[in-house]
């Protein structure tokens, strides 16, 4: 199997993958515990939405400036530093005891989001330096599969641990996973290749040059816009999953764990589906067609989720939803890795992650306010219809302007491979 062969022969990728596995499990422990803690202290979904929305402040203030340094510095050191800082931030949740302490959670949420953006952007920019271009689809499908496994078992185990031992136990586990992740990455031999030509430039100049490149590549801009529309639904679903599990179905933290188990199984299914049909999408046009159908499939499934009559019926629909989202994510990351040149790849991935986090946070905050006036089922149905509409619009724009031609031209300038 290609996955096992790649993990066996590529030492750097293997350690990077293991670090991501371990820290991702801890992340889901944290996520379940944080939602459970906030709902216990406040009893309202608006507080959960506000916690998520607080991630935007440090991202907007410091994210763009820090993104330029990803291409200037050793990406391994950036990832290790991000792990150490996130471990310290997570320990701050231990000091939250009552509703008046929630300002700590709001602050830490933003700090953790910034650390995660830096880590993920450095990892994605580093990947083409340690893996051959023709293996990027395989690499991204491995990460999607792993992401699904860590969600499925991390969130389920997190719900179980929280229900038995309390929220603080999950926060301690999360801090420990960040330390282990940093140790694994620090053991990777060799250095990433920083862009020394940018060392003396002002950060604003670099960001302006990156924006000019994006403006000259409409296919990449459309790719980013498509993902932005999906980020809106993801932000709202981050709130709705907790509301459906804890309030609509009254299933408690274990119910939330069941939902994330379904989410994980969906990503696992999506990554396997990509590998099965890999031989059929050798062109940008074919890849985009698959992504468009996947986006519309997500919308249809979310509309079905809104009308689910039980916890397990809802969980089954979530599996289908995230199979489509797993397919979309693998192709999205692969195309972005292939189309963006190495000297700005770190900035583009960082800005993409900032875009994703900001949109998800704002949409989560909007969901919290909307839930004060409409039911969770109505909101879930509305977001499903919105995603279907976006899929139709983006597909029409791509085909009308024949953007696969400009994308393929850009790809040939950087790597001579097909998706």
Explain what this protein looks like in three dimensions.
There is one protein chain. With 419 residues, this protein is mainly α. It has a single domain (13-188, 201-414), classed as MFS general substrate transporter like domains (Growth Hormone, Chain: A, Up-down Bundle), CATH 1.20.1250. The chain is built from 16 helices and no strands. It has helices at 2-9, 11-42, 45-53, 56-70, 75-91, 102-130, 136-165, 167-186, 203-215, 218-248, 252-276, 284-306, 311-339, 342-370, 376-400, 403-414. Residues 412-419 have low confidence and may be disordered. InterPro entries: Bacilysin_exporter_BacE_put, MFS, MFS_trans_sf. The chain crosses the membrane at residues 46-66, 78-96, 102-121, 142-163, 169-188, 220-246, 258-277, 286-305, 311-342, 354-371, 377-398.
């Amino acid at each position: 199997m290609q996955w096992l062969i790649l993990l066996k022969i590529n030492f750097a990728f293997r350690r990077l993958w293991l670090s991501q596995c371990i820290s991702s499990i801890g992340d889901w422990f944290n996520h379940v515990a944080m939602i459970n803690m906030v709902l216990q202290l406040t009893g309202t979904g608006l507080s959960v939405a506000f916690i998520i929305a607080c991630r935007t402040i440090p991202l907007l203030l410091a994210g763009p400036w820090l993104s330029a340094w990803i291409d200037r510095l050793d990406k391994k050191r950036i990832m290790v530093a991000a792990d150490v800082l996130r471990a310290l931030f997570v320990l701050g949740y231990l000091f939250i005891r009552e509703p008046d302490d929630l300002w700590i959670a709001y602050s830490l949420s933003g700090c953790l989001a910034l650390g995660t953006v830096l880590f993920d952007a450095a990892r994605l920019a580093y990947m083409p330096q340690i893996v051959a271009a023709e293996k990027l689809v395989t690499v991204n499908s491995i990460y999607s599969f792993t992401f699904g496994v860590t969600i499925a078992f991390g969130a389920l185990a997190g719900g179980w641990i929280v229900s038995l031992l309390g929220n603080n136990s999950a926060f301690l586990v999360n801090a420990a996973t960040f330390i282990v992740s940093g140790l694994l990455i620090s053991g990777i031999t060799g250095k990433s290749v920083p862009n020394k030509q940018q060392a003396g430039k002002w950060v604003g100049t670099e960001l302006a040059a990156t924006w000019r490149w994006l403006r000259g590549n409409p296919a990449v801009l459309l790719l980013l816009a498509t993902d932005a529309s999906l980020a809106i639904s993801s932000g709202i679903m981050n709130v709705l999953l907790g509301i459906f599990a804890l309030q609509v179905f009254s299933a408690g933290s274990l119910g939330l764990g069941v939902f994330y188990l379904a989410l994980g199984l969906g990503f696992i299914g999506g990554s396997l589906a990509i590998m099965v049909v890999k031989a059929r999408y050798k062109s940008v046009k074919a890849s985009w067609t698959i992504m468009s159908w996947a986006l519309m499939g997500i919308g249809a499934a979310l509309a079905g989720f809104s009308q689910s009559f039980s916890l397990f019926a809802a969980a089954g629909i979530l599996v289908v939803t995230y199979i489509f989202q797993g397919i979309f994510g693998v192709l999205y990351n692969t195309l972005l890795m292939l189309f963006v040149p190495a000297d700005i790849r770190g900035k583009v991935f960082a800005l993409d992650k900032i875009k994703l986090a900001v949109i998800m946070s704002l949409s989560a905050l909007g969901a919290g306010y909307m839930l004060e006036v409409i039911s969770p089922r109505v909101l879930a149905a509305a977001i499903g219809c919105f995603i279907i509409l976006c899929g139709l619009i983006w597909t029409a724009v791509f085909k009308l302007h024949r953007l696969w031609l400009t994308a393929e031209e850009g790809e040939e300038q950087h790597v001579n491979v097909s998706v």
